[in-house]
Design brief:
The chain is of the alpha/beta class. About 60% of the residues lie in helices and about 10% in strands. The protein has eight helices and five strands.
Length: about 190
């Protein structure tokens, strides 16, 4: 089975992806991890990524899509993928569909963890108190939240029509969200 899990910063995507990986023996595909690995290994793509990031820009769809293509075409990971935070744009969503079709795969489940901005604020403030983070992290997260919601709207519209699309209230407790996702995946 292949799964997409997406939602705004503070929604708990990473936590839920890790739970799904453990429970269903899937491979987590995090674009951030893929990019960091390329930079760490100093590959030619990694050097390009480092150059782009040093200017304060995001890795291009072209680079991200190429890294995703390697994962999708890996026979050991076929039909065992959970995409965490990818796709982030409509072009990435369309690219993923093409890659999967070309390798005789499909997305079996799509989860959107919907979290209101107020919940994100509470979570970040609680986390800041626990970890003694600087106040400016809240401003950064809120900016990322707004940007995410704006840029992800086309992706949401792209997937919402699918029968395997599930919107989950991301403001619930972690265990409750995990239970809902596991119940859906176990059917």
């Amino acid at each position: 089975m292949n799964v997409i899990i997406f939602g705004p910063p503070g929604a708990g995507k990473g936590t839920q992806a890790i739970n799904i990986v453990k429970k269903f023996n899937l491979f987590q595909v995090s674009t951030g991890d893929l990019l960091r690995t390329e930079v760490k290994n100093q590959t030619s793509v990694g050097k390009d990524i480092e150059n782009i990031i040093s200017k304060g820009d995001f890795a291009t769809d072209e680079i991200v899509n190429e890294l995703i293509k390697k994962i999708v075409n890996d026979p050991q990971k076929k039909n065992k993928l959970i995409f965490d935070g990818y796709p982030r744009s409509l072009s990435q969503a369309k690219n993923l569909d093409i890659l999967l079709k070309n390798s005789s795969q499909k997305i079996d489940f799509i989860f959107f963890l919907n979290v209101k901005k107020e919940t994100v604020i509470k979570r970040i403030e609680k986390r800041s108190l626990l970890e003694n983070r600087a106040d400016d992290n809240l401003a950064t997260i809120l900016k990322r939240y707004d940007t995410y919601m704006e840029t992800t709207k086309p992706v949401l519209d792209f997937y919402i029509k699918n029968v395997n699309f599930y919107e989950i209230d991301g403001s619930e407790e972690i265990a409750g969200i995990s239970t809902k996702i596991e119940q859906i995946l176990s059917v």
